[in-house]
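User: Before I run my own analysis I want an independent prediction to cross-check against. Here's the chain; please return only the structure tokens and, at the end, one sentence I can use as a sanity check.
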Amino acid sequence: MRKKSLILAAACAALVAGSLSSPAVATSQAPSEAPAAFTHPGVGSSRAQLDFVRAKVQAGAQPWTNAFNQAKNSTYASLTRTPKPRAVVECGSYSNPNYGCTDERQDAIAAYTDALLWYITRDDRYAQKSIELMDAWSATIRDHTNSNAPLQTAWAASSWPKAAEIIKHAYGNWPNSGRFATMLRNVYVPEIINGSNSNGNWELSIIEALQGIGVFLEDRAIYDKAIALYRLRVPAYVYLESDGALPKTVPSQNLNTREKIVSYWQGQGTFVTGLTQETCRDFTHTGYGISSISHVLETARIQGIDMYPEFGERLRQALGFQAKWERNLEPVPSWLCKGTLHRGLGPITEVGYNALHTRLGYAMTNTQALTESRRPAGTNNLFVAWETLTHAENPS
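Assistant: Structure tokens:
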């Protein structure tokens, strides 16, 4: 019965999303999606989830202890790390040129890693290193430029709020937190607030970043914008049979013919449940999109807004479809991506799998097998990090 409810809710949500004419209209017409009062720490992981992880690591339990050691022994956790901020981060396609792109993303992941390690160990050196990294960037950065600027901004801004939430609301001693907030509002938000009409993983990363910033700033308008974009993009990224003969589309992209839709879906003309807009591009970019879908649902839940009944079935099917073919247990049929798949899903299954399997009780055979075989999940060095540690079998 629960599965049928998820499917029905997803179908109804798709119909609603398809009737909206643009992200701007969705924002202006819909009631606020933001909570009446924001919960902190509340981006990616809640205090209860972090407490669960801390207890497991203190007890030496697995898989959390191995995952903790993986994070602690990574370069991101180095207490001698030197921040590398730039006033202008310039990133072209595939980070060419790369003027500060890798430095910014990795410093943001490092700040989050240090904040997480502080929470688990209560070793103040990690909190101070996280603060050092965030302060260095908030004192320096003024802009992102070149063609990949929106994506670069989104990736970094998906990690910064996770770190900032833990430090500000759990550690507490951060004199320059206001300057960091100003950085997010004045440097990051303007670059991404209008979303993207590129491949779907771009806008999904943007949505994740905007939602996290909205929580940290307690800015309801930014949070609402993120969810308005989400309601349009997710049904246009993951196909369900209930969508009809063709996938849903984002109206602003003007994909108004079958030919345009097939082209946007990487030449894939056969649509089956769980297929994503980027499956036939490669599984790596598909993983970016699925990861952000799961992150937004989890942060919304922490903020007291359960969006799993509406979007959980799309996430479950996307994970299951990609996990099946990532496992490479059978030949790829000719109708799927012309018989050739580019695998490499990345460490992106833990959050969605935990939500749908551990908490909601859905059997997810392929996702479970893939997830458990690759533990501990590390980082993709862009915006995903340490999710076996934070979300494996986490009931909170």
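Sanity check: Residues 1-58+233-396 form one domain.
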